Amino acid sequence: MLARGPDATLRLARAHPGATIRTDSAARAARLRAALGRDRVLLSHAPVLDDALEAELDLLAGPEVPLPGGGRLLVHPTPALTAIDVDAGSAAGTRDPQAQLRLNRAAVAEAARQIRLRNLAGPILLDLAGLTAKRREALAEPLAAALAPDPLARLLGLGPLGLFEILRQRIHPPLHEILGWPPSPLSHGLAALRRAAREAAARPGRHWALRAHPAVLGALQDLPGALSEAAEAIGTPLQLRPDAARAPSHPEIEEAAHG
């Protein structure tokens, strides 16, 4: 017999023992306090996934990550490996070699961060922007330092094609497999339920409806507990309004009449 392991919250809590856990669910708070102690778990009376965090989740669900000062990372998972490309943007045409070096230093740090946030696993190739092989070698140490806090990741070195080769151990599925790539109807539906909870908290006492493509509504109905937990958070059942003309990526929360 195999026993079910800890869920994602408990795994992260044990990996980061100094972190405080915030939840907006009283039942979840009670369960976590029993496992982690009362002092580590805070019960919030407002939705913990606010608009700023949702924007971060949207960013993690897509392939583009903006870099400070311009440029971007492009993250491309494939069945065999994940390719991360640095697009220099406006810095590509500059004659200042230091500008490209600064961009790639920022890209190295952000790539290591995205690898961990997205839980990427297996072979990972990082292609920097516009640097000679010798100048790329100079960024091996900053990349190794950026990866060092991640016990699952290991920098193998700079390959013959000028790509940094990283190997990261796979223990749980990466984020793009959970959300879908592009995001699945279920991912869009769960994001809409979180949005409904925020709307209800901001304007209590009202009734709400979810207008969405039938695939989104069907995915939510097939996930045990999704709609019942949303109703508990909102304070009233969410009316479901199928709309085949609406793209699955654009569900809408709208106020509904009472009754």
UniProtKB/TrEMBL annotation:
Membrane-spanning ranges: none
Domain RNA-binding protein AU-1/Ribonuclease E/G: 53-170
Pfam families: RNase_E_G
Protein name as catalogued: RNA-binding protein AU-1/Ribonuclease E/G domain-containing protein
Keywords: Endonuclease, Hydrolase, Magnesium, Metal-binding, Nuclease, RNA-binding
Organism of this sequence: Paracraurococcus ruber
Entry keyword Isomerase: no
Matching InterPro entries: RNA-bd_AU-1/RNase_E/G, RNase_E/G
Signal peptide: none
Needed co-factor(s): Mg(2+)
